[in-house]
Amino acid sequence: MSELPLSKMRNFCIIAHIDHGKSTLADRLLSMSYAVDKRKMVEQTMDSMDLERERGITIKAKAIALPMNLNGEEYLFNLIDTPGHVDFGYEVSRAMNACEGALLLVDATQGIQAQTVANMYLAIGADLEVVPVANKVDMVAADFDRTCGELEAAFGTKAADVVQVSGKTGLGVDKLVEEIVKRIPPPEGDITKPLRALIFDAVYDDYRGVVVYVRVRDGALRAGDRIFMIGTRSEYDVLEVGVVRMGLHKQPELKCGEVGYVICGIKTVQDVGVGDTIALAKHKNEIMPLPGYKKPQPMVYAGVYPTNAAEFDQLRKGLQKITLSDSSITYTPEQSDALGSGFRCGFLGLLHMEIFQERVERELGLDLVQSAPNVTYEIKKHDGSIERIEKAGDLPDPTVYDEILEPMVKLSVITPTEYIGNVMALSLERRGLYLNQEHLGKDRVLLSFKMPLAEVIFDYFDKLKSGTRGYATMDYEPVGFEAADLVKVRIMIAGDEVDALAMIVHRQFAEQRGRNLLKKLKEEIPKHLFVINLQAAIGGKVIASEKIGSMGKNVLAKCYGGDITRKKKLLEKQKKGKKRMKMIGGVEVPQGAFLSILKVGNEPGE
Known about the structure:
- This protein is α+β, with helices and mostly antiparallel strands.
- The chain has five domains: about 5-185, P-loop containing nucleotide triphosphate hydrolases (Rossmann fold), CATH 3.40.50; about 195-285, Beta Barrel (Elongation Factor Tu (Ef-tu), domain 3); about 300-370, Elongation Factor G (Translational Gtpase), domain 3 (Alpha-Beta Plaits, 2-Layer Sandwich); about 380-485, Alpha-Beta Plaits, CATH 3.30.70.240; about 490-600, Elongation factor 4, C-terminal domain (Alpha-Beta Plaits, 2-Layer Sandwich), CATH 3.30.70.
- It has an eight-stranded antiparallel β-sheet with strand order 11-10-16-7-8-15-12-13. The chain has a six-stranded mixed β-sheet with strand order 2-3-1-4-5-6, sandwiched between helices. Strands 22, 23, 24, 25, 26 and 27 form a six-stranded antiparallel β-sheet that branches.
- α7 (about 310-325) crosses α8 (about 350-365) and α9 (about 420-430) packs antiparallel against α10.
- The longest helix is centred in the last third of the chain and has 21 residues, at about 565-585.
- The protein starts with 8 loop residues before the first strand and ends in an 11-residue tail after the last helix.
């Protein structure tokens, strides 16, 4: 199969909003290839994780080589299925660097969504040939003309260029295969030049170590070669190369233009820089690296602690195992007065964090306590140096720094026109700065805002969905850091500061959020035998306080009569006991109290 000339190869990816049918269309293309065993096919064949199947989402990008027979001619399609969710945008950008074209999939029943726009701009930025595809056209609710109108309004696409398909029934997929051959250019490369290959993904295999997925740009890669990774400055011997079909298919070599895998006996995914360039060790000083992409930067941090302190070692081993297959999770040990020993983990977004927690509980059988997620801040010190702050507890005294910088994002929201007012009100209330709006057809609009990431991860998505009856979709991309009037709100329970509940918020919301959090804590923390004081403070100034009353015990129940002084004596004794208990007694804080910080809004009495 590898004897095919470059003109007979097509490298492309499928991009779309979440749940628009990427994996179903990928299955349909797989079933058309004569090299795929139909008996091994299942629904969402390329989604190998149980979690991916259950949730119906793609988490990891997948590559697969499909030999095709079109009008008696042999072709080789290298298809890369990509995730649709915003948290996995870095997976999409990698996949694009390994392709010449992309299928832009739009659900004809829903039209363009926020991530359709974001992924389209990524494809244009990567200089890919884009083939627009309207999926699910067999459904009663499908409106092909409206979908074409939205594509034209957003990207200037002509209706005649949009291919109609149904991934479920197979309608129009033959036509799509022809369009792929016609419109997507074949790969370019020079077999005579020294080897240059781009790493676009790496996965961990329990038996063979790290399997590195590559796209060969120039030259050829063979088993037995000594290779050099330019970014990590490391050398390895190639044990095996090949292509991916329904499994790994060994081949003698990978030539320029081809997409395949390399196994070198690498122990951990952290040793492989995704986006790095592979060259032969003998040419390591003369090869220029391919334009790669940066290491994914965690956007959201959370503390992860075992509910049982004895399981700390198990959690550490579990994290090592999970990061073998997902190098974008970062973790460092940390100690919390309230929660004991645990780890500070960095994630790409809230969905990424949720999937991580589910994987830990499912694969390792551990119960976790997770502190509320927060974003990374930067402080500018008096000498001009910048320091990163990953949690509110790390924020030093205000005399040490000049200003706090918070991460900003460009937020895109697509909504029916009747809900523009609701979206505007919600976004401006969350300190959003309105940028512009574009109309996509007559009844839908794309609104853009610049907004602090902390306000987006808080509960913006839930409020957006409820304010638009579930019709709006959103997407965001980081745009750097900006200074803001931020303060650290300290939370004290019975006079002890609880670092896991501290938060960094804008000064104008500090008092309200502090008050709302204390109300939530009052509901979550059970009554003790003594009164518990809850306080929120900025520096030394208390801005809100609440009290949890003591659990009543009637010490007078055994007094059936006698003198009043006897009753007073018993009450005085109880008072002293409660005072002593308050001094030495610990307050039990349940996990729900730590998660209640997520449900704290800015609105009074929320």
